[in-house]
């Protein structure tokens, strides 16, 4: 199949053609080793950029720069000045949204419509939300009586201070928002950052770091080291000069992060895997359910920790729901994100495509029935069709394990089975997201309380907003991002008592 999609702009081509190194103390540097790695366009498999591969030496230099900035000019910024910087970042992201959109498409395979919405709307909105927080981070006076002092003879209060140097490791599935979710709270709280973006998709993170410098962030506040998880990521997680690690990625790597962070007991937040259930009751509005469930599973080609990949649907409406979702899946136009008519882009790599295909085949061997999809189209790039499996069970491989691909596993239930359905929904090590679809809000609230997840939505799935906390229970993570709760891991509390 010939690719006739429009090519990238001259601005994007100029960015791709640059030498891509590491941002340390305000300067782009090559690796000490001289090693590089190629960044591929997943829609073609071709190399689009070559990036310096860093390791322990670059991480150490970046951490030292972050520490110096924390103790230097950044510490003298007022809360109002940090707010102004965040607002300026939002404006500059909006100004450069076309460049960022094209880089996001070429780097990670997003469809153009989704990439455009993320770059022009979602990311600026998040930065503006966090721009409102620096002037509202405050301690409290405490009615304490140290050593028996009487009222009027002492004053006790708390200070909220930046936790220090933050090491952040971000994934490849939505690179620009993932970088934003680390940078925004760092700037809001007055911390400094060493960011290690995913080696499969580092381009928009590098451009965002440049935007932050243009917005007035001092040198050394945001540092970026490219490289693999085994070299740069491991060195960052273990570095004794890092006060906190913020990681988004797989549960398996999250465990490695925790072990490495134990070396100096640094604080850790983890946003990890998911296997989110969608529970569709008999009275649900199918005009909402069918497109909503399809979107929940196939968004980002299923490469999404929040993806609704387990569908529990009442037996009376099972066939209608399955056929409706399958019809949407079959109608999706698969193609490069640079083609504005494409609905569904590629997976990130050949390895990921093989992984997804393996899960589908495992499900079929174990008795699942394939309704649609399940194949790789005969075309360049790492594409895989949106897939629906029915007659699945909890013990099947694609049901019990996170696939991170466009595969929906469907199970049915009957009247009086809500208790067992809730148990099935929770029969996984994950607890990130979930949804309930029904017209009965009383029943909806019962199911909301029964689903063990950090986020549960009703008649919508993965309802994201800058003000709403997001994070996982069980092996889906530690801590929360978004909202006020997203700032807490970047702050520490100091108790102060004064007597006279």
The domain count comes to 2
Helix tally? 15
Q: State the CATH architecture of the largest domain.
A: 3-Layer(aba) Sandwich
CATH structural class of the largest domain: Alpha Beta
Structural class: alpha/beta
Radius of gyration equals: 24 Å
The largest pleated sheet is described as: 7 strands, mixed
Give the termini distance in whole angstroms. 82 Å
Shape designation: globular
Share in β-strands: 15-25%
What's the quick description here?
The protein has 500 residues and is an alpha/beta fold. It contains 15 helices and 22 strands.
Description:
There is one protein chain. The chain is α/β, with parallel strands linked by helices. It folds into 2 domains: 10-272 and 478-496, 3-Layer(aba) Sandwich (Aldehyde Dehydrogenase, Chain A, domain 1); 276-465, Aldehyde Dehydrogenase, Chain A, domain 2 (3-Layer(aba) Sandwich). Helices cover 37% and strands 20% of the residues. It is built from 15 helices and 22 strands. The strands form 6 sheets. Strands 14-15-16-13-12-18-19 form a 7-stranded mixed beta sheet, sandwiched between helices. It has a 6-stranded mixed beta sheet with strand order 9-8-7-10-11-21, sandwiched between helices. A 3-stranded antiparallel beta sheet has the order 5-6-22, with no helix packed on it. A hairpin with a 6-residue loop joins strand 3 and strand 4. Helix 3 (79-95) runs antiparallel to helix 5 (112-131) and helix 5 (112-131) packs parallel to helix 6.
């Amino acid at each position: 199949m010939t690719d006739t999609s429009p090519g990238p702009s001259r601005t994007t081509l100029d960015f791709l053609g640059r030498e891509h190194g590491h941002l340390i103390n305000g300067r782009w540097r090559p690796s000490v080793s001289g090693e590089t790695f190629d960044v591929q366009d997943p829609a073609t498999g071709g190399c689009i950029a070559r990036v310096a591969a860093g390791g322990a030496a670059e991480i150490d230099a970046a951490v030292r720069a972050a520490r110096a900035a924390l103790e230097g000019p950044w510490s003298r910024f007022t809360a109002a000045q940090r707010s102004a910087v965040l607002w300026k970042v939002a404006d500059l992201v909006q100004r450069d949204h076309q460049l960022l959109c094209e880089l996001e498409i070429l780097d990670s395979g997003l469809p153009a419509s989704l990439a455009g919405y993320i770059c022009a709307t979602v990311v600026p909105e998040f930065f503006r939300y966090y721009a409102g927080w620096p002037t509202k981070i405050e301690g409290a006076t405490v009615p304490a009586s140290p050593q028996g002092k009487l009222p009027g003879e002492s004053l006790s209060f708390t200070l909220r201070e930046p936790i220090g140097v933050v090491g952040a490791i971000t994934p490849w599935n939505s690179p620009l928002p993932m970088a934003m979710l680390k940078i925004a709270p760092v700037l809001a709280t007055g911390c400094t950052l060493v960011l290690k973006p995913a080696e499969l998709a580092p381009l928009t993170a590098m451009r965002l770091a440049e935007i932050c410098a243009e917005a007035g962030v001092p040198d050394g506040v945001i540092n970026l080291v490219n490289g693999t998880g085994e070299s740069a990521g491991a060195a960052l997680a273990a570095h004794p000069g890092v006060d906190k690690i913020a990681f988004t990625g797989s549960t398996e790597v999250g465990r490695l992060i925790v072990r490495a962070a134990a070396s100096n007991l640094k604080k850790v937040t983890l946003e990890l895997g998911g296997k989110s259930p969608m529970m569709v009751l008999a009275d649900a509005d199918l005009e909402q359910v069918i497109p909503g469930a399809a979107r929940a599973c196939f968004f980002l080609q299923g490469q999404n920790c929040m993806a609704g990949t387990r569908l529990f649907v009442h037996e009376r409406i099972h066939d209608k729901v399955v056929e409706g979702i399958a019809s949407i899946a079959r109608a999706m136009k698969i193609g490069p994100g640079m083609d504005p008519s494409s609905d569904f882009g590629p997976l990130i790599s050949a390895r990921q495509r093989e992984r997804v295909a393996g899960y589908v085949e495992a499900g079929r061997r174990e008795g699942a029935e394939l309704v649609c999809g399940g194949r790789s189209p005969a075309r360049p790039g790492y594409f895989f069709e949106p897939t629906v499996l029915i007659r699945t069970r909890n013990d099947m491989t694609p049901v019990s394990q996170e696939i991170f691909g466009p595969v929906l596993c469907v199970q049915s239930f009957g009247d009086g089975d809500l208790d067992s359905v809730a148990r099935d929904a929770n029969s996984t090590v994950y607890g990130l997201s979930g949804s309930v679809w029904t017209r009965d809000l009383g029943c909806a609230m019962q199911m909301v309380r029964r689903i063990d997840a950090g986020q549960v939505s009703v008649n919508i799935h993965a309802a994201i907003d800058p003000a709403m906390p997001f994070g996982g229970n069980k092996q889906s993570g530690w801590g929360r991002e978004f909202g006020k709760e997203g700032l807490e891991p970047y702050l520490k509390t100091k108790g102060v008592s004064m007597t006279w």
